[in-house]
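User: My instructor asked us to take a sequence, write out its structure as tokens, and then describe one feature of it. I'm not sure where to start. Here is the sequence I was given:
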Amino acid sequence: MGWCVGRDLSDHRGNRNLAEGLLVTYLAMARSATPKAPSVPACEACILNSVSCIALEQDRLSETRVNVGDTIERRALALETVMPPRVYVTRLIPEAGLSRLRPHCELRLWEGDLPVPRDVLEQEAAAAEGLLTLLTDRVDGALLDGCPGLKVVSQMAVGFDNIDVAACTARGIPVGNTPDVLTETSADLAFALLLATARRFPESEKLLREGRWKTWEPQLLLGQDVFGATLGIVGLGRIGEAVARRAKGFSMRLLYSAPRRKPELEAELGIRHVPMEELLQQSDFVSLHTPLTPETRGVIGARELALMKPTAVLINTARGPVVDQRALYEALRDRVIWAAGLDVFEKEPLPLHDPLLTLENVVLLPHIASSSVATRDRMAVMAAENLLSVLRGERAPHTVNPQVYGA
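Assistant: Let's start with the prediction itself. The structure tokens for your sequence are:
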């Protein structure tokens, strides 16, 4: 039976990676001067047919045409043209980000409302050169083991505790994120949540909507004053600092607890560094802005809640697991503290049977700290640019593990 480049390619046209590999192999053989190299022109028609089939199956042959008279080298370049890097986006992100990706890659997208199922993620990631992920996607060693061609993971978030960064680094895969862009929007939400919890906005609206507002009452829905109160900030990163600046507009006394002091910021804002216990004991409001690490997991538990004032309010817009959620429920139920405002939870979405939902002295939001039109657009664009930079052979503008680039 005669040997035929086109037949081999056609047999494997459903497998994009294998078809590309075969074409590269045949190209190398055709370039060699050994007698064993096949006659390239003899398979002109077959190669043309095979390349066309591969391209059609990828739905990307709209403007690419292969002429029979072209050389094998020209055909390889044509195949590259119709087969740009494959990128998988794990959720429907703002169009501002998707429009950056489409001209430069073969874009595949999970369009469901819920996070992409693990088996689908594994299947799609296996053939991808780039992944654009969200906090709801677990990127670990097991996933990476099945992704031999993966070159970059770009997260559309500032946090990345869902990604095994060490596993990515060991495989030479840069991990991108979107810092700074969501700082002010997240700080807006944190301070709004503080105000809503202190002044009992959700309870007030519920009473009105249910027709239970009868008249002005001197004891109706009394809250806590914010102006002039003491705010304790746990974790003085970018968002924590932005919250402190907003608090200055309310003449709040500012305390903070963090691993490293910031003398310049202390002088500028009049914020004082204190041990964690002192912060909890003195603050009227405690706002959490620490990343989730092994050291911060459960940093607010029953002991810490017991140190707080009975009139104190806890605000968490950082990560759910930095608070022992069961201990917080019990502290709120037993009035150990006055109230809490939460945008994040140990398990998301919050299960409908969670006991926190039975309490009136807690304000619950569905993780919307960065949820503004402008900010989510900027996050999507930044994530897309991080991804495309690596696929172009450049450094991502924002890389969690810059050591992958070497010196």
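For the description part of your assignment, you could build on this observation: DSSP finds 16 helices and twelve strands in the chain. Try explaining in your own words what that tells you about the chain.
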